[in-house]
Amino acid sequence: MKLYESAEDYLETILMLSEELEQVRSVDVANKMSFSKASVSVAMKKLREQNLVEFDSDGGIHLLPKGREIAERVYQKHMAIARFLRQIGVDPVTATQEACKIEHDISEDTFLKLIAHSQAIEEMKNS
User: Fold this and answer.
1) Which helix (H) or strand (E) holds 53?
2) For a tag on the chain, would you pick the N or C end, based on fewer CB atoms within 10 A?
3) Looking at residue 1, what is its pLDDT?
4) Residue 100 pLDDT > 80, yes or no?
């Protein structure tokens, strides 16, 4: 399933918020992403229609298995890319911002090579 970048961002945000909050609501997503509640509502409806999220009776948002899988993959890419960028001297704020852009477009092959190179840098530092 190929999703738009924005859908991946929503799923990643829900995942991150679920680690911080007992219950994630649309307003939490809107605040975290600096989007309007109306925009988030439309996006959540689309994600629900794609069976990526569900809502409980209290309005809490929950990732369904496929949505969680996508969110975790995007988040893993984000963290690895940001770490690599910091390793090569990019300041942390810029590294985080640019990782958000790169995570959606990087090929799996390039991503795996980036991880391998990042690990080699860590091993060199630790030896």
Assistant:
1) strand 53-55
2) C
3) 57
4) yes
Asked if 92 and 101 count as a contact pair (C-beta separation under 8 A), the reply is no
Is 0.90 surpassed by the pTM of this model?
no
- Give me the chain's average pLDDT, please: 93
Cα angle value 108/103/89 (rounded, 5°): 105
Residue in 67, 74, 71, 72 with CA at minimum distance from that of residue 105: 74
Supply φ then ψ for residue 6, to 5 degrees.
-65, -40
Residue of 51, 50, 57, 67 whose CA lies nearest to 12? 67
- CATH number for 5-69 (one of 1.10.238.10, 1.20.1440.230, 1.10.3720.10, 1.10.10.10): it is 1.10.10.10
